[in-house]
Amino acid sequence: QVQLVESGGGSVQAGASLRLSCAASGLTFNLYGMGWFRQAPGKEREFVAGISRDGGNTVFADSVRGRFTISRDNARNTVYLQMNSLKLEDTAVYYCATDRARPVIPGASLNEYKYWGQGTQVTVSS
Predict the structure, then answer these.
(1) How far apart are CA 82 and CA 60, in angstroms?
(2) Sign of the dihedral through C-alpha 90, 52, 54, 25
(3) What's residue 104's pLDDT?
(4) What integer pLDDT is reported at residue 103 of this predicted model?
(5) Residue 39 phi, psi (nearest 5)
């Protein structure tokens, strides 16, 4: 019933920007904090950014802070990841996920999240 669908990925050159979207359905969206994760080939899935369920608090991985922005539109059941100044190291499959409906800043641990999307590929080349 719960479905998260990422979109907006693609292949770009270093320095370019992309905006990822994650549309949620089958849940009361505004009860869930949301997170973005990514997984590069041969690597474990890593935390990118998180946003509280009301959008008032955000957190970023050190590797993307200052370049990426997370936001949400609860009226549209959508969370976004604006990615600027993309680097080769940003190449990965990007996933969105819900937390466990806690009114707190979402954490970076995988086990804090409940529902996951299928991912969207982001490829950055020089």
Answers:
(1) 12
(2) positive
(3) 85
(4) 83
(5) -140, 115
